[in-house]
């Protein structure tokens, strides 16, 4: 599936250059050839069309429930869409699956702050600091 890799690589390049419409086009083409590719689903889910990213994350999780990146992204999308409790749940799962998920921990921290869970917010802040300085 060399063509899938080419489309995926081009989608990533377009994403990095912030040409999101072209990135979506290439991710769509790659997924047309390999619809169960979790990496491509997660990458397309990262496009700044937050509501549209949720089905991609859910599809990735349905294929591989242990994909911490999909759980972390799903948490971020829920946080961005003002759904802090869902964000906390998804980020907690990402952290459970991969304890090095600093992005999930930071998103969960923000979601705890959003709902006023200050003790949990402090716990995640300390955890994030420890993770970043590798205590």
Give a verbal description of the structure.
- With 135 residues, the protein is mostly helical.
- The protein has 2 domains: 1-57, Tetratricopeptide repeat domain (Serine Threonine Protein Phosphatase 5, Tetratricopeptide repeat); 66-135, Serine Threonine Protein Phosphatase 5, Tetratricopeptide repeat (Alpha Horseshoe), CATH 1.25.40.
- The chain has 8 helices and no strands.
- It has helices at residues 2-16, 20-33, 38-45, 50-63, 68-80, 84-97, 102-115, 118-133.
- The longest helix is centred in the last third of the chain and has 16 residues, at 118-133.
- The protein is elongated.
- The N and C termini lie far apart (42 Å).
- 39% of the residues are buried.
- The mean pLDDT is 96.
